[in-house]
Amino acid sequence: MMHSEHMTSLGLTKQLFAPGVHVCQIFSTDAERQESLLRFILSGIQSKERTSCFSDKTTEKDIAEFLGENGMSYEEARENGVLTLAGTRDVYFENDRFDPERMLGVLRTYHEDSVANGFPAARVIGEMTPDVQRVPGGERLLEYEARVSMLLREHPVSAVCQYDARSFDGAVIMDILKVHPLMVIRGSVVHNPFFVDPEEFLAQLKGGPAVDESP
Questions:
Q1: Taking the C-alpha atoms of 119, 34, 29 and 190 in order, what is their torsion angle to the nearest 10 degrees?
Q2: Structural contact between residues 106 and 91, judged by C-beta atoms closer than 8 angstroms
Q3: What's residue 14's pLDDT?
Q4: CA distance 128 to 53
Q5: Is 158 left (phi over 0), alpha (psi -120 to 50) or beta?
Q6: Can you tell me whether residue 82 is helix, strand or coil?
Q7: What angle do CA 98, 101, 107 make, to 5 degrees?
Q8: Is 21:123 a contact under the CB 8 Å cutoff?
Q9: Predicted confidence (pLDDT) at residue 85 exceeds the cutoff of 50
Q10: Nearest to 175 by CA among 143, 209, 153
Q11: Which of 107, 157, 180, 205 is the most exposed, fewest CB within 10 Å of its CB?
């Protein structure tokens, strides 16, 4: 069972959070994305949390070198199951489509397996690529992100979702912010003033009253 009193840094700032936060990082440079991803991985391993990364841009060599520079062993983390890596397309776009139900199932199973294996907490960081705007199911991205916030109430994986401001237009970025309770801004993780409660957001998408999709 995961420790309810467990508090940890996400590596992005010195702030401490309980498991289950849902954070949006809108980045504008590859260096910004890379630094946040590597620090998130490092702090997860240091906290002995099960840590997963979805990226097509950060290589195993990048991660191994960064961990080595900070006194951690990449090989040991992989062998012990503390760190798992996967390509963005492999995770988000199985069979060249985006399926929110499948992705929510991946997160749910990831949390349950982490609990079963005795980890104090679990975390994941992943970049949502602009390909989501072109694949079948991609139009359900905002629905998915809203449902993630709901899922994390019962399956508290700490999740950081990275979006490239250069690859999504301003209107899409604003909608993305609406479905993340927390955001990274000026070196801090802050409560997102644009956030809309997920039940309310889903009701707006469906044009009806708020719905309860608690697991």
A1: 30
A2: yes
A3: 87
A4: 12
A5: beta
A6: coil
A7: 100
A8: no
A9: yes
A10: 143
A11: 205
